[in-house]
Batch of 3 targets.
Target 1
Amino acid sequence: MRMVPCLALLVCLGLAAVTDVLANESFPSRPLTLLIGFNPGGSTDIQAQVLAEVMAEDLGQRVDILHFPGRGGGNAAAMLASSQVGGYVFQYGHSNPFVFTPLTAVTSYTIDSYRFVAGVALEQSAFVTGPDTPFANWEDMLAYGRERGDLIYVTQSQYDQLLIESIMEEEGINLRILPTSGGADMAPLIINGEAHFAFSGGTHSGYTDSGEMRMLASPTRDRLMGYPDVRTLHELGYDLEMHTHRIIVVPADTPEEHVTRLSEAAQRATEDQRFIDVTESRTRMPVTFINEDDLSALLAAQTVQFSEGLQGR
């Protein structure tokens, strides 16, 4: 496995005339590209490095990694939608860029632009603070924010920003927003004390044991697998949640047999001890395989819920 230079982008996405060979080839007959919508070093990248290795062994072809950060994975999703190489480029990351971002921003894609090959893990997102902030729990953070008049917050996506803005509006606290393109960019801002708290999709798992990050709350439906003492937003009194999956996605026109082959490789990856270890031990997320039909239904339902929620704002 090797990293793909961004200069090779057009080649990787196959925007040249390659469709004439797709119908006659046995998939996969050449290396594949795993697209990540975040910078290297975050929890998505940590998982993807192992996922690419395991899937490459199953598929019999190298799986290279291409990072294309921005808009919480939305830039990569837009790139993927324009891919014309029949599944040789697939994206790995959380589900929000596909079900939420098109509802809140002008995008070149919709949920119908994709096939959702498989879900492989349940994201364990959290709100975190650094080692030296003058608070260690959610209530004390709110009290500190009211005393100061504002709090500095590090966001990674439109969804987490909308969620926290809704909460802070209810609490009467102003927010100063620092946007980032992923957990790798969020971490130093929190550790160095440049912000009071932040959203983390899973990067916090590499910093909590050392005390460089402290957990404040979780937006997930249930308490986090790796942090059972951390309260959810529901438990803190908010009727809000963020229930996202780590998924594998291809463009909607990907041939059926290619989707089936990728799905089989993804399912076997969730049974491989290397992927289980990096997911459950290092990033502290439960491995949860979801097939295409069930995942598509789940994401379609989430899109409806998000749309209704946005109309109510």
Target 2
Amino acid sequence: MRNLLFPIAVLAIFGLAVWYLGKRTAFVFGCSPIWFYIVYSLLLAGSFVFTFGGAYPWTNSPAGHVLFCFFSEMLGILLYLLLVTLVVDVVQLFAHFPAWLFGTIVAVLTAGICTGATINAFRPKPTPVTVELPKLRQPLRAVHLTDTHLGHFRGQRHVQRLVHLINDANPDVVFFTGDCFESPYNLNSKTLQPLKQLHAPVYFVDGNHDGYVNADSVKALLRQAGVHVLETEVVEDFGLQIVGLDYMRADDADANSMHAPVGDVTISSFCDTFRASDSLPVVLLHHNPCGGQYLEKAGVDLYLAGHTHGGQLFPLTLINNRVFQFNKGLYQFGKMQVYTSCGTGTFGPPMRLGTRSELTVLELKPCK
């Protein structure tokens, strides 16, 4: 019964949204809401089918690409159309707008918000963060890259933009914590070719969306571009012990890691056999910021992750802190520090509101 509660609740919310938007749109146009119920239902259904089906090959055709982009953008438009209509409706209780003015205000505000959120999503900005690490012998600059979500909305040009930003930051090393691709669209060596222009070596671990697309193909293309792909392994470089974990669950009881392999290695089981360096700081890379309790006990000094997008869009930004222990930014967890980046890409609507596309520039310094 519990497994049915969530889909029932979601369908009820969608049904109420369609009913409400249909009623208010009919008020603006002075007609029956029945056709608006149908239109909003089809738009909402299409938005979810294409947004969550983007990793399937059937979206790779020219028509599939156009439909994916349209419906993914539409999902964001419908979200803010609903929120704006609700807000204007509250004001309407006191202002008593005529129908045409009500509709104009809603349309202008929705268009402005969605346009601004879309522009914001495609302007990644370097975020400087200073972290003191025990056992670090000399300062080190690292760039933390995550959640590029290459596919229908982002391709070679986006990678080239990121390469310029990374080279401008002049890092010693780049840590890439997964979700390189979200779709087979643009999954080719040409998309990643700009990575060969990077002046610093790159260490990569995969994310859940890489798995949806085909993790082996993503890793092969990254290796062709000169990236060091870590598959639950440990290397020593730049005066660090670098640990790269495949996308996995925190432990056998973890039900929150999206489509992480069941029955394979978990963060908990990895920590049972992992030995932290006695002389080097330990930097661990994993896509999802889970399993912190095991990693802190295992002696990890800095845990780098992505996955959360910081919520990406208001009002999801208000919920994410309850969903993820380490939602965004820098955390102190016992003796371990955790940095979760919002990432440079988006999932679903190519929009960001309440968050920003982030390229983290880490200034790693010895403890004073």
Target 3
Amino acid sequence: MSDTLLQRSLAAVWHPCTQMKQHETLPLVPIVRGEGAWLIDAGGRRLLDGISSWWVNLFGHCNPRINAALREQLDTLEHVLLAGFTHPPVVELSERLAALTGGRLGHAFYASDGASATEIALKMSAHYWRNRGEPQKCRFLSLEGSYHGETVGALAVTDVALFRDAYAPLVKPGRTVPVPDPRRAQAGESAAALARRAAAALEAHLEAHHHETAALIVEPLVQGAAGMVMYDAEYLRLARALCDRFRVHLIADEIAVGCGRTGSFFAWEQVAGPAAQGEAACAWPDFICLSKGISGGYLPLSLVLSTDEIYRAFYDDSSARAFLHSHSYTGNPLACRAALATLDIFAADDVITTNRARAQKMGELAQAQLGAHPAVRHLRQTGMILAFDVDRAPADFARRFFAAGLEHGVLLRPIGNTVYFMPPYVLDEAELQHLVDAAAAALAAALG
């Protein structure tokens, strides 16, 4: 069965982010079933999903509570257009997400994937300034190494050459400012001091270009595709103040880092404080983009949360002043119901609290097993994201490590020479131990 499935897939399926020729020597993995944190291939091999299947799966594969919610929704309503119509799941989801921001971002606009959410936030920001009579504010700013998606608009704020350069003629490029990556700190410089130095560069840029800048977009606390860059929240506090001062929107791309990944439901809570607090010492973003984990890894769903001020700028008799963006499956009831079931699990299981203990154990095991390895550098962790860099790694390290991980029963997919863990929120201590043991074995094999 597996050989036939592989042959059919290679013949008919063009796989994402993949040089297909590599599969002449690195076979596809035919997955036929999922159980909790595990994937089972056609030969019965069990693989611990150490990266949540591209960072989306929060509560395990085939979660019975999400399954039950979807079965109920299937018997009620599978889809209806959201232009001129509405339905209970999209209303409830919007209200609950707004409440998680303390009502600060009370309007939700829906799409199906993270790059689309980025596109929405960028277009909404530029259109806002146009509606305000300042159409010249249409340029965007991001951090060095940023990744916000691979559609043409999102590539303007994606600073990863592999994804961007081939399509450069199609893109109106944005500008970048330094990221406060602690690996670049000067001798004796703290992460907070580095954040302040990077914020000074942001201030200088906005001083010169604020008149044409619509928005700054950031991945709060962790830059994913840049190699899990983990930086101090002080930078975001200063960036928020600078954006206010220079009248520039701040877009928080929480597509990867939201939904509990960093230790709070929104990463921005570690900047501004819990949403339940009154007026926070630091303001919230003007936009928050969510996707990936919001549906528990079940169905494509993304959304942008925005403020009353943004919303009011589009509220008018003129259709030209409306936000002119749409997707056929916007606010799909099944996807919204999966998201509601995901939020139910967060509340019922007090996931943020229980994840603190899980994250601490993962960090302790990784430090004990990998911390002293002569090739391991910059072992770091933010919530349920753990990463380390591999010194003097061979050019094909990522592929070698990935293949070795499969041999040891784990799915891990390095970014260059950076190995990272981003597992589902259901691992017990034995599964955490397996994750770390398999990573150590894969590291030895990839370097050997």
